[in-house]
Design goal:
Chain B: This is Sorbitol/mannitol transport inner membrane protein. The structure holds 2 protein chains of 2 kinds. By secondary structure, chain A is α+β, with helices and mostly antiparallel strands. Chain A has 9 helices and 18 strands. At the A-B interface, β6 and α2 of A face α9 and α10 of B.
């Protein structure tokens, strides 16, 4: 259960085509993350799968069944919204029970499933509260609880952690990953945060302007980005891009090197530069070095004690160099 | 920086506000005072009116001559009935316009509102003739129908404004949770819009209660509500000030009390959507 196939799916709003024809296959039990910058169509794609938007063309199959024209409720999917979308007038218990009530489940089943979901999500003590009396993280858990009780073929998450503060986001990220391990259900997760994508996904789908730029495991995308866009989008801090003569030396239009693949020295190296801003994170230090090739970001360890104005030399690890042609495709 | 308001300025503004409020309330106050006077005293100069004898005489006469409770009951049935039916029609209509708007939704809304700009007397003759042919003259059903239709644009507009404030995500969540259209409206939309629906209900009960044009023109005796009850005491000849005042006081009292207790809800309803 939980295989989803998109065949030539496209979406247009009036004359504006937001998703050109697109093919994608999601395997059973996979944790797939759609990632891309704002407005790249990732949420629209999720809503097409959910059935909340009608496709303008193409077909959607869920577990081998044509589902393009099925209403959301009959696709067997559950969705968790960015805004949580809890029913404010119902208690936590009633919120979680709502899908079961709609499915006309008997009271004993409802009670059992709600209790089970509440236990998994640590919500047992809050069942009688209203959503307004819960914190952001608890609300998000209720939204997940509401999805769990449906025992869906797949969970759809639409930027579920965007409204949470940084610390809670890290916790919830872990909780969702643990939930995936526990339930082993297909999950499709939309985010603009590439850290979430890298840490949670089995498979990442990078989108730009409605097109799929690359599909692969987090490490595949990190190690072998197919083009400049993916190379720049995946990885934090971003990959450095250098063009001109330096790139030509390596037989490319542009070369890319990640900040962690550059050695920094005060005595010798390939590129000479001056330290601009340095950001000390404790475990790491991010240095912005001004060179003849522009500003290059370098990741050093936490002990680096360089300051603005210091002269330094940078040496890229040539084994980790990414080369791109004039179209931005990896060579 | 917040604007500074001196105490003196505040006092003056408060006094002006009280004076304006008193001026607005004065006709009602005077009606109530006159209702406790004899017909002879009621036409004296204002000062003499205030100092003259107080009595319940006019109230007894009014109840004796024309059955207050029958009119009261007609008012209740007509105002509540027309509002409830309007709500049943308006909730799905407002849902459709708020959540699945089409290209012409705004035009439809404006068109509905435009019907309120037309003077009612413009359609009096055709409606009167239809009512006569269908045997609806002087019936409560007829008045419920006509007041329901008259107030429907306002009800739809108010509900539309409330529904627009409800996040679409929540309705989509209900759809994902397997709710059919009717369960979505029944279990999710309506409970969330209860404050809005309540203030719409209140306002329309008040509008229907006070409606005089149709109630006077389409009723005679059987279905006559309190507006007709008051009108029966306005006469070009004779001394009827005290009795007219007593009738008016009796007619406005229920709605005044309802309005007093629900003023918070009403104000919230009327300013809803103005500020988030």
């Amino acid at each position: 259960m939980g295989q989803i196939t998109l065949k030539g799916v496209r979406k247009a709003f009036g004359d504006v085509e937001v998703i050109p024809p697109l093919d994608l296959h999601i395997n059973e039990g996979e944790f797939v993350v759609f990632v891309g910058p704002s407005g790249c169509g990732k949420s629209t794609l999720l809503r097409l799968i959910a059935g909340l938007e009608d496709v303008s063309g193409g077909e959607i199959e869920i577990d081998g069944q044509p589902s393009t024209d099925l209403p959301p409720a009959r696709r067997g999917l559950a969705m968790v919204f960015q805004s949580y979308a809890l029913y404010p007038h119902m208690s936590v218990k009633k919120n979680i029970a709502f899908p079961l009530k709609m499915a006309k489940a008997d009271q004993a089943t409802i009670d059992r499933k709600v209790e089970n979901a509440a236990r998994i999500l640590n919500l047992t003590d809050y069942l009688d509260r209203r959503p307004g009396q819960l914190s952001g993280g608890q609300r998000q858990r209720v939204a997940i609880g509401r999805a769990i009780v449906r025992e869906p073929a797949a969970f759809l998450f639409d930027e579920p952690l965007s409204n949470l503060d940084a610390a809670l986001r890290v916790n919830m990220r872990l909780e969702i990953s643990e939930l995936h391990q526990k339930l082993k259900t297909t999950m499709i997760y939309v985010t603009h945060d590439q850290v979430e994508a890298m840490t949670m996904a089995d498979k990442i789908v990078v989108l730009q302007a409605g097109r799929i730029e690359q599909v692969g495991s987090p490490l595949e995308l990190y190690r072998s980005p197919r083009n400049r866009f993916v190379a720049g989008f995946i990885g934090s801090p971003k990959m450095n891009f250098i063009g001109g003569e330096e790139a030509a030396k390596h037989g490319a239009d542009t070369i890319g090197i990640r900040p962690e693949h550059i050695a920094i020295s005060t005595s010798e190296g390939a590129w000479k530069g001056t330290v601009g801003v340095s950001e000390h994170l404790g475990s790491d230090t991010f240095l912005h070095v001004e060179t003849d090739h522009g500003v290059i970001n370098v990741r050093g360890d936490g002990e680096v004690s360089l300051h603005a104005g210091d002269a330094v030399f940078l040496t890229p690890d040539l084994n980790q160099l990414h080369k791109f042609d004039a179209e931005g495709l990896a060579i | 920086m917040a604007r500074k308001v001196s105490t003196r300025r505040k006092a003056i503004m408060t006094a002006i506000a009280w004076v304006i409020a008193f001026l607005i309330f004065f006709p009602i106050l005077w009606t109530i005072i006159l209702s406790f006077k004899s017909e002879g005293d009621a036409i004296k100069s204002p000062l003499q009116v205030l100092t003259s004898h107080w009595s319940f005489e006019s109230y007894f006469v009014v109840q004796e001559r024309s059955d207050y409770f029958r009119h009261f009951w007609n008012s209740v049935v007509i105002s509540l009935g027309s509002t409830l039916i309007a709500l049943v029609i308006a909730i799905p209509a407002a849902w459709a316009m708020a959540f699945v708007p089409g290209k012409r939704t705004k035009d439809v809304l404006m068109w509905m509102l435009s019907t309120k700009m037309m003077p009612a007397v413009g359609v009096l003759v055709p409606i009167y003739l239809m009512f006569r042919d269908w045997g609806l003259l002087d019936t409560r059903i007829g008045l419920v129908a006509v007041l329901c239709l008259m107030n429907l644009p306002i009800v739809i507009w108010m509900l539309y404004t409330y529904f627009k404030e409800i996040p679409n995500d929540i309705l989509e969540a209900a759809r994902m949770d397997g709710a059919t259209l009717s369960s979505e409206i029944l279990y999710v939309l309506t409970p969330m819009a209860v404050p809005g629906i309540a203030s719409t209900l209140l306002l329309n009960v008040i509008l229907a209660w006070n409606e005089a044009f149709w109630t006077l023109n389409l009723t005679a005796a059987k279905a006559a509500p309190l507006t007709a009850f008051i009108a029966a005491y306005s006469s070009p000849e004779g001394l009827f000030y005290a009795k007219l005042s007593a009738a008016s006081t009796l007619a406005i009292a229920p709605i005044l009390i309802l309005g007093w207790f629900s003023q918070k809800q009403l104000v919230r309803g009327l300013t809803f959507g103005a500020v988030k």
